[in-house]
Amino acid sequence: MSAVISFPIKENDIISYNPATGEEIGRVSAASAAEVETAVEKSREAFQLWRKTSFAERKRIIMRAREVILDEMDEIARLISDESGKPVAEAISMEIAPVLDLMQYFAKNAAKMLKPEKINIGLYALLGRTSKIVYQPLGVIGIIPAWNYPFSIPLGEIVMALMAGNTVVLKPSELTPLVGLKIGEIFEKVNLPKDVVQIITGDGKTGAALVESGVNKIMFTGSVATGKRIAESAAKTLTPFVLELGGKDPMVVFADANLELAAQAAIWGAFCNSGQSCSSVERLYVEESVAEKFTNLIVEKTKQLQQDSGSKETTDIGAMSSEKQMKIVEDHVAEFEKAGAKILTGGKRNVNFKGTFFEPTVISNATNEMRPMQEETFGPTLPIATFKTEKEAVELANDTEFGLTASIWTGEVKRRTRLAEKIEAGTVCVNEVLYTHGIGQTPWGGFKNSGYGRTHGKFGLMELVQPQHIHVSHITLVPNAWWLPYSPIALETFRGFARHFASGSLFQTLKLAPQLLRRIKELRNK
Fold first, then answer.
1. Which one of 3.40.50.720, 1.10.3210.10, 3.40.605.10, 3.40.640.10 gives the CATH number of domain 14-245+458-467?
2. Annotation marks residue 392 as catalytic
3. pLDDT per residue over 484-511, tens digit each?
4. Catalytic position from the list 83, 157, 174, 278
5. Residue 278 catalytic?
6. Hey, what long-range contacts does 102-106 have (CB within 8 A, 24 or more apart)?
7. Which tens digit of pLDDT belongs to each residue from 383-400?
8. Which of 244, 282, 376, 390 is the catalytic position?
């Protein structure tokens, strides 16, 4: 039994390279549209059985998978590092540890979160009615994750989908297919029923085929441009979707903040995973009165970072994922300089290494009018701009087409909530930055072009089910007053419903009782 689909080797095989060395790690086949369709059909068949499993059985499987990950943690971390370029330390701290927490949380709490809910239907209850909501699984969930977190993003979504009673077809990024296959192997080892989780490897064409296959929902993480294409394609089959499309996240630092702490946070928020996080700090706004002091702190700390292969335990900054992404960063840094910004440290490819290494780069004198302050960079750059007032800080932070996360740094308690609620972002952190994707209990998603829908938390779980309303009449001996045929008595009764019952007042509704009884008597005599 296998959760991994093996296809014959073809000429268009996808080769996985280690971005730190340029060496081939392995290769996978690209699934055709027909093979994708077959996988989805198998997933539909598996769904009919999986949906009938108990929450307790699903929990046992997820918790066993969790033990497999713990047993193989170092091996998995090394694979993540080799295929994505990130340090092994970050593979553990930002991918493995967070998803392990997510797994135990949803394994233990999904049943409670999805239990049937009674609905207060007000005065209709006096007529002998009750209503409740039950949550039904959607069916086949198609997951197309990004390459920047190739383990935690898809595995977290798989776990939530399985706990909700769905089956999954995962198409990992063509840059990190081996990590995707590893996820399939994990579920093999815990004897997940056949075809409940399937891994299909391929490029954009394979992903497009999955979107067009008629799955019951698409979960996509990636660029705005690709997200729009997915939305357009999904609309043809009315396939619902969740889109997480990136960000241009601001960090706002006030003069009364702990500047030493904020500087450390800014460096981690901008440079971890070589800046390739949707919630990376891509715009730093600091109050003008402390801008010079704060900038000097950041430059000093940035120069102390160690850049090297992700396999080394002392590496702070690893390789970027691809040459394509490297060129975007180079373009943005050049544009900053052209527009009058100043490169304080870094600013170029690290020629000491063969792979795609870009030096952690601090930039001053940035303004929102500069193109790189509007476009997502997704690299190890930290542009710094200044502000004078709270109002200006909020306006600068909101001056973007994105709205994924943001952070505010201040020691003033009242300012924290006041400003947080004015920031246009799905998550606003106060005196904290970046890491909330790692909190599986909280919703993840953004405003504006940062996406549509949510993953994680109860809101994310609700994306993977459909609420079904069940309404019961417990009175089976008399007809409803609003049934056919109509009559003058019916019309007067309906006027009473409008005047009295629809008021929501029990006192007013009691005035309707005599007319209601006349109407019911009329219907019983028909």
1. 3.40.605.10
2. no
3. 999 999 999 999 999 999 999 999 999 9
4. 278
5. yes
6. 102/152, 102/156, 102/159, 102/160, 102/440, 102/456, 103/62, 103/63, 103/65, 103/66, 103/155, 103/156, 103/159, 104/63, 104/66, 105/440, 105/441, 106/62, 106/159, 106/160, 106/163, 106/440, 106/461
7. 999 999 999 999 999 999
8. 244
